[in-house]
Amino acid sequence: MNHWLVKSEPFKYSWDHLVTEGEGMWDGVRNYAARNNLMAMKVGDPVLFYHSNEGKEVVGLAKVSREHYPDPTTDEPGWVVVNLVPVEKFPNTVTLAQIKKDELLKQMDLVRLSRLSVVPVKREEFDHIVALAHDKK
């Protein structure tokens, strides 16, 4: 099982949109590295949902419900989508500022490859973010 993080601007597609839909198609990816990451996702893989630009924070946990298939939003061949379902809205968001300050997280692909909308997350990074999201401050 792999772990992932997907980024979306909340005004385009927010956590609440995913929850309302119940299952969302992760479309519109037009970066080859991000596309390759989508192609590596397997059903059941856990996915951190990150709001970019506005908020800049991990807001919830989703999982892959359907593996990659052709992106129906384009006629260009080679682009793919996956489907995600929401699992949990986090009680506490984990901000980019927190991630950048944290010794365990500051080298995450989220920070190093900030332009990618789909990035792998190491198991220890994933577990740490989930723990921070559930911290009873």
Automatic annotation (TrEMBL):
<feature type="domain" description="EVE">
    <location>
        <begin position="2"/>
        <end position="131"/>
    </location>
</feature>
<dbReference type="Pfam" id="PF01878">
    <property type="entry name" value="EVE"/>
</dbReference>
<protein>
    <submittedName>
        <fullName>EVE domain-containing protein</fullName>
    </submittedName>
</protein>
<dbReference type="InterPro" id="IPR002740">
    <property type="entry name" value="EVE_domain"/>
</dbReference>
<dbReference type="InterPro" id="IPR015947">
    <property type="entry name" value="PUA-like_sf"/>
</dbReference>
<dbReference type="InterPro" id="IPR052181">
    <property type="entry name" value="5hmC_binding"/>
</dbReference>
<dbReference type="InterPro" id="IPR047197">
    <property type="entry name" value="THYN1-like_EVE"/>
</dbReference>
